[in-house]
Design goal:
Largest sheet: 8 strands, mixed
Strand content: 5-15%
Helix content: 40-55%
Shape: globular
CATH superfamily of the largest domain: NAD(P)-binding Rossmann-like Domain
Low-confidence stretches: none
Oligomer: single chain
Number of strands: 8
Number of domains: 2
Structural class: alpha/beta
Length: 261
Amino acid sequence: MKICFLGCGNIAQAIIDGLLKSGISSSDIACIERNEQRVESLRAQNLQIIKLEDLASIDLDLIVLAVKPKDALSAEKRIYKMTPKVTILSVVAGIEIEKYSQPHSIIRAMPNTACAFCKGVTALYAKDHDSTAFNNANSLFTRVGHVLALQSEEEMHRFTSIIGSGQAFLFQVLNIYLQELEKITSSNHVTAKLMFQDFISSLGDSFSQDQNFESLINKIKSPEGTTQAGLESLEKNNLDKILQDAFQAAEDRSIEISNEK
């Protein structure tokens, strides 16, 4: 499969990293990027750097559109001017398929940056789930994690919130934990980060053994103990609502971006 990335920001780089880890050859990935610092990083991965004008001379299976939302529609038109029959895989948040000039040739994807470690979650939507292009897109993201094929494009707003943004919310919570850990290991922050790395890994190990969060919590807390006191504080301060509001705000912004175009 030959793929070209138009725009190589954070999410595109995460997909590229995962694809390379999965065994895809760097010779099968082309990139169009204007940022010189990113271009140097891409060249260091032995990726082919091309210009938009070169698209017509390359036989591509998919073009991954990974530009900013404000640039997506104009970029799509330029792509189809160069290569009228290509399929575009858009990872641009908030831009619905019908907004593009050729909606039947667009596949929408909402991946997250865990794709870099081949542990991503990607929501996919297209008008035709049986097309060769959709199957190619599904295969591509299966290489870097899990794929959820959506039956309705409206679902993409919620998945943008949960899949696209959700990691950042958890990172924000974990950053607070790390800051507290560093306070008690103030003499050696390197040690703190190594401890933290193992702590994060242990969360995944615990969940793999017992996928019930209430059960996992009960293994830690004891009646009237320190953990119980902290959990009661979280409940009193409506942690559930804080996170639910964050998901809703991200979903609302996805809808706003869609309505802006």
